[in-house]
Design goal:
The chain is of the alpha+beta class. The protein has 16 helices and 22 strands. The protein has 3 domains: 220 residues, Rossmann fold (3-Layer(aba) Sandwich); 85 residues, Uridine Diphospho-n-acetylenolpyruvylglucosamine Reductase, domain 3 (2-Layer Sandwich), CATH 3.30.465.60; 123 residues, Phenylalanyl-tRNA Synthetase, Chain B, domain 3 (3-Layer(bba) Sandwich).
């Protein structure tokens, strides 16, 4: 049964943060401990109220051997008992920790969230329910305070984050244990929760009791502080988003923001904007520390402002034409298209570059010049061999139409202000190592149409 006192308090949290909607499919993370057991039991009790469809997720982290196997067996049995289907998984967390140079706690969290997302996608879940409670909030606040954090970190555990919901976030561990007892529920005990070499456990068993000696209401005071921090953080987030939307040019895997527009902001907003740019590109801020953001902002104080930094997660930050660019490093990988013969006349598909090139011959009398970088008019008889299309290569140079001398392709791109992320995608049409046309921009002067031209080759880019 659902105790009225417990029901009212948890339901108030659910409604306050709009955690559930009628007909939601919920993936419930169940470790077998009291918090997750109580969560599954509670959600089962309100299943009809919200017309919920529940599915259990359990992960064996392969850290605790036989005990972990017993946990999985218990969860499977409990899920079956309450009439909920379950997905039980195993993952070698120690191996992940060793490979990625993470602590066991960090590796376990990364594996757990990645696998929950995968199972939620297969189950087509609307929400993922976790059993975090108010005491977890206090512990997390203190952990981040000790390690160093800004307002976002000191906001502790969000009641709702993306598809993750935490219905118990405003009730205490004591409340949960009372609910467990009132309903005669069994649960598993994880002995590693007593391991004082783990910072969270040390805070729980040593630091919090010590602080409570100074203020018996210490945990309640911290929870009020967290609420205030969250409200301030939310307000500043709204301001940051407004500035970001007005300044940033954001696309798939990159953000460009005017340097002067960034410098014009307060230090606080500069930091927030930098973090927002990184998150846009990276999707998260894992591995991003205060020192990384400060390195970016400090670089803006040099004259001239010109730098390039690489951040964790293969993200690069650099200056380009009075803009600060945040981008995935993969956008700047070497050439994407090997030499491909052009069909003349005919159509050539350059799939890696996302274009099609049409080619045809016309007589000079039929020619109507199109002043468009996507169309090239060439003297067919001046082309000494078979035309190909490819991506750029180191050392490329040509003689841009209208110029008397050679120019390096790299310098040409700089003069034309072609963003670095786009340079590998520019089709280069040529013969051997000679460039005939920098497609979309300019032909080589040596292949232009003149009064003596007998045959005109027209090349046209189609998307």
């Amino acid at each position: 049964m659902v105790e009225v006192w417990f029901f009212d308090r948890v339901l108030a949290t659910i409604q306050k943060y709009q955690m559930l909607e009628k007909g939601d499919k919920i993936l419930v993370a169940v470790s077998g401990g009291p918090d997750s057991v109580a969560l599954l039991h509670f959600l089962k009790q309100i299943e009809l109220l919200y017309n919920l469809e529940l599915h259990v997720f359990h992960l064996n982290h392969e850290i605790r051997g036989k005990e972990a196997a017993k946990d999985a067996q218990f969860v499977a049995g409990f899920a079956s008992k309450v009439g909920v289907s379950a997905t039980l998984m195993s993952f070698n967390v120690p191996l992940l920790a060793e490979r990625e140079k993470l602590s066991l706690e960090e590796a376990a969290r990364e594996a757990r969230y990645n696998l929950m997302d995968e199972v939620a996608a297969k189950f087509v879940a609307d929400k993922i329910a976790l059993g975090h409670h108010a005491n977890d909030q206090v512990e997390t606040f203190l952990m981040r305070l000790i390690r160093g954090a800004g307002l976002e970190g000191l906001g502790s555990i969000a009641p709702v984050r993306d598809s993750y919901i935490r219905p118990f976030i405003e009730i205490t561990k004591e409340d949960i244990l009372r609910y467990i007892e009132d309903n005669g529920l069994e649960y598993r005990i994880d002995a590693s929760n007593e391991d004082l070499s783990i910072l969270r456990n040390k805070i729980r068993h040593e630091l919090i009791p010590l602080l409570a000696e100074y203020n018996p209401q210490f945990e309640g005071s911290v929870l009020k502080t967290i609420e205030i921090v969250r409200e301030d953080q939310s307000h500043l987030d709204d301001i940051t988003t407004g500035i970001f939307d007005s300044l940033a040019d954001a696309g798939d895997g990159f953000v460009r923001i005017p340097i002067q527009g960034l410098i014009a902001q307060s230090t606080s907003l500069r930091r927030r904007l930098a973090r927002k740019c990184i998150k846009w590109v990276k999707s998260d801020l894992h591995g991003i520390e205060f020192k990384h953001v400060e390195a970016i902002l400090n670089s803006l104080e040099t004259v001239p402002i010109q730098f390039e930094l690489e951040l964790p997660g293969k993200i690069i930050v650099f200056t380009e034409y009075e803009q600060l660019v945040f981008a995935k490093k993969e956008l700047f990988e070497p050439a994407l298209l090997e030499e491909t013969r052009l069909k003349i006349p005919g159509i050539t598909v350059a799939a890696p570059l996302g274009i099609v090139i049409e080619a045809d011959y016309v007589s000079p009398r039929e020619l109507e010049f199109e002043r468009n970088g996507r169309v090239a008019h060439l003297d067919a008889d001046k082309i000494p061999g078979e035309l190909t299309v490819r991506s750029r290569k180191p050392g490329d140079s040509f003689k841009p139409f209208g110029m008397t001398g050679e120019k390096k392709l790299q310098d040409f791109f700089v003069d034309e202000k072609v963003p670095r992320r786009e340079r590998n995608s520019v089709p280069i049409v040529g013969v051997g190592n000679k460039i005939v046309w920098v497609a979309g921009f300019r032909i080589d002067e040596r292949y232009r149409v003149t009064e003596d031209t007998k045959r005109v080759l027209i090349l046209r880019i189609r998307d």
